[in-house]
Structures are given as C-alpha cells and as structure tokens.
Amino acid sequence: MVLQQLKWNYRLIRKKNHLQEMKVVFIYAYAKIIS
C-alpha cells in the first residue's frame, strides 16, 4: 500500500517536471522566433 503511494507520488512529480521542461523548451523556441 505504501509502495503504491510512493509510486503514484513519483509519477506525479515526474509529470510536473515534464511540464516544466516543456515550458522551458517552448519559451526558448519562442525567444528564438522573436529575435
């Protein structure tokens, strides 16, 4: 049960980090287009 909880939290954290990475990449590409 605890292991399942940890696994779920890990997945949630990874998803958040992935969104953060996507945001960074998007901002970088956007800056490239503008300049």
From TrEMBL:
Q: Which domain of life is it from?
A: Bacteria
Specify the protein name. Uncharacterized protein
